[in-house]
Design a protein that fits this description.
By secondary structure, the protein is an alpha/beta fold. The protein contains 15 helices and 13 strands. It has two domains: 124 residues, Alpha-Beta Complex (Aspartate Aminotransferase, domain 1), CATH 3.90.1150.10; 234 residues, Aspartate Aminotransferase, domain 2 (3-Layer(aba) Sandwich), CATH 3.40.640. The protein is 43% helix and 16% strand.
Amino acid sequence: MNSIPQSSETSGWPGALLADLRQLEAAGRLRLVREITTAQGPEVEVDGRKVLLCCSNDYLGLAGDPRLKAAAIAAVEQWGTGSGASRLISGSMTPHHELERAVADWKRTEAALVFNSGYHANVGTIPALVGRGDLIYSDALNHASLIDGARLSRATVRVYRHLDVTHLESLLEKDKGRSGRRLIVTDSVFSMDADEAPLQAICDLADRYGAWVMVDEAHASGVLGPEGAGLVRELGLGERVQVQMGTFGKALGSFGAYVAGAQALIDTLINRARSFVFTTALPPAVVAASQAAIELVRSDDSLRAGLLERVAMLRAALSERGWRVLPGRAPIIPIVIGDDRETMAFADMLYREGGILAVGIRPPTVPEGTSRIRLTITAAHDESHLARIIQALS
């Protein structure tokens, strides 16, 4: 699908939808699905052509790792292809419990709970913890799943300026006399900017104002911290962050998500998180692959160390060539263009002329006027791949 099909239909169904889609197309904000016809890797095939994949979140290149595949295959042989029901019915199988014990040990928490995706985890966890009469303090650039979870909770939501702890403190101070729970919610590494939340300062404010802290480690899990356990553990804040969330579908090369924390937190989610209660449990093969990935990142630092070295090198090379590269150390390299149409035209040029698949990111995913190419690097990219990227952007 390359554009909205032409139709003489202008009213009724589906004419009204086509009209909406054409408005998106005219604004340069129409989203399209592109079919990848090979397995995930540093290079993939699209439209019968091999291209360099530079937009995947498979940061450690584990999605095709033979050790994860072997774990998944063995789980299929032993446990079958499906879990059959939700976890509270008959779907809570041994692999799910083994993975949760592995996550809790990795994150150094009392317990953990597996969710079917990062979106499930966030939209389920936040409403389970706070509701009407409570207060949520949310970073302005938090992921959509955190925003939606906050909205679903029906708590009062205060949005503080991105990474601005002074603004956060002013909001907490204004609410000082109010009753109800207070929950500060933030990503640790922001998916579109690659910057990191000031977690130490946030925890200090939480202690001062009696708030809880929830940190989404989706883009830090497997990449940052000792054993790849994330930014919370790197900063030694595990005792001060009440809710640690992360995903298996990015650096860990599998699928699903987790929430880690006190046993009381996990028991609360088992009883109150609707996205956990009312969904079929993950297939055993997916769960087994996730556990294998955790064991791998805990035992071998080389993939993570090599990845961060490549990211630093590429960031420096692009900055030297005059590109506006947002700072950071995560394997997300945002190149800000600004205009929506110029961004998409540039992404198309990279694909057609450079053989590089790097998707343009536009509003509402990013703020108005900050459309960008979001390059991502994985441990599977070698020096020749980086040279191709630099050449294409030169």
